[in-house]
Amino acid sequence: MRILIAEQQCATYAALLHEAQPALTLCPAATLDQLPGLAAGCDIWLGQPDLLAALLRQGLRPQWVQSTWAGITPLLAADLPRDYRLSRASGIFGELMAEYLLTYLLAHERQLLSRMASQNSKRWDDCLPGTLAGRRVLLIGCGAIGQQVALRLAPLAVQLVGVASTAREQPPFLQVVGLEQLADQVAQADYLINLLPDTPATHNLFDRRLFARCKPGAVLINAGRGSAVVDDDLVAALADGQLAAAVLDVCREEPLPAGHPFWQTPGLLLTGHTAAPTLPGPMAELFLRNLQAYQTGQALRGEVSFARGY
């Protein structure tokens, strides 16, 4: 059984997998032009969805694809086949995402950016900071990553409310409501954190109508997908004071074009899609666990339903 590794860090992945299981036949691609020739002889593909989608478009067919990304949007294009098993990176991003969100939640409460501006202008800034204790945090997306984030935020005495595809009980959330109740929930939230995947139901979710319902002083953090936010509506919401601030890790187009208004929007911080990067060590461990499951006919962790899109 030959395994294609289609990754920018293919040499690192190959070394980790070989160390763990020396008997594996690994085919790492050091350059893009090597991929098609190697893929033709491999039933299992491990790698980036953008690279693997290009191989599928060339008529190459795997039996199983393990994505190294949590998002698998490139592999869901309408012109691509769906007659193989697909699993996404799952269960390895929760801690990283929690650290990212805590960074910017605390930075907002402690007025980090305004204090830096005060220092640059040689102005003593003794404004009192806020605290996360008692803040109502709306986590929009309560899957594996959202659950890990919630577990790490709960000890800070925040009020955690979740939004998912359907309502359910899910500790440590005070409640988890269905997506149809999002507009009602934003009116009470101090922080709106989007962790939703890219599906038709999440496109343009954050638009001017939703922003108009937001509580004065609310902050939006988008670490899900850029397609969830209507760009012009966000710029207007910040300009009109409907939102106090926004932190965007993801955008509709990446890298962001030089002329995009986000670059110069007051109150908006861009973090360059760095919230929860795939680390080769945990990803290699996940792949090996899924490889064993695949070989024994068991369910794969993070297995994707093409019908649902995640």
Itemize the secondary structure elements and their pairings:
Blueprint: E1 2-6, H1 10-20, E2 25-28, H2 35-39, E3 44-47, H3 49-57, E4 64-67, E5 85-87, H4 94-109, H5 112-120, E6 136-140, H6 144-153, E7 159-164, E8 175-178, H7 182-186, E9 191-194, H8 208-212, E10 219-222, H9 231-239, E11 245-248, E12 268-270, H10 280-295
Parallel strand pairs: 1-2, 1-3, 3-4, 4-5, 6-7, 6-9, 7-8, 9-10, 10-11, 11-12
Protein name: D-isomer specific 2-hydroxyacid dehydrogenase NAD-binding domain-containing protein
InterPro entries: D-isomer_DH_NAD-bd (IPR006140), NAD(P)-bd_dom_sf (IPR036291)
Organism: Pseudomonas pohangensis
How would you summarize this macromolecular structure in one to three sentences?
With 310 residues, this protein is an alpha/beta fold. It contains 10 helices and 12 strands. It folds into 2 domains: 109 residues, NAD(P)-binding Rossmann-like Domain (Rossmann fold), CATH 3.40.50.720; 177 residues, Rossmann fold.
What does this molecule look like?
It is a single chain. With 310 residues, the chain is an alpha/beta fold. It has two domains: 2-92 and 278-295, Rossmann fold (3-Layer(aba) Sandwich), CATH 3.40.50.720; 94-270, NAD(P)-binding Rossmann-like Domain (Rossmann fold). Helix content is 31%, strand content 16%. It is built from ten helices and twelve strands. It has helices at residues 10-20, 35-39, 49-57, 94-109, 112-120, 144-153, 182-186, 208-212, 231-239, 280-295, and strands at residues 2-6, 25-28, 44-47, 64-67, 85-87, 136-140, 159-164, 175-178, 191-194, 219-222, 245-248, 268-270. Strands 8-7-6-9-10-11-12 form a seven-stranded parallel sheet. The protein has a five-stranded parallel sheet with strand order 2-1-3-4-5, sandwiched between helices. The protein is elongated. The model has no long low-confidence stretch (mean pLDDT 96).
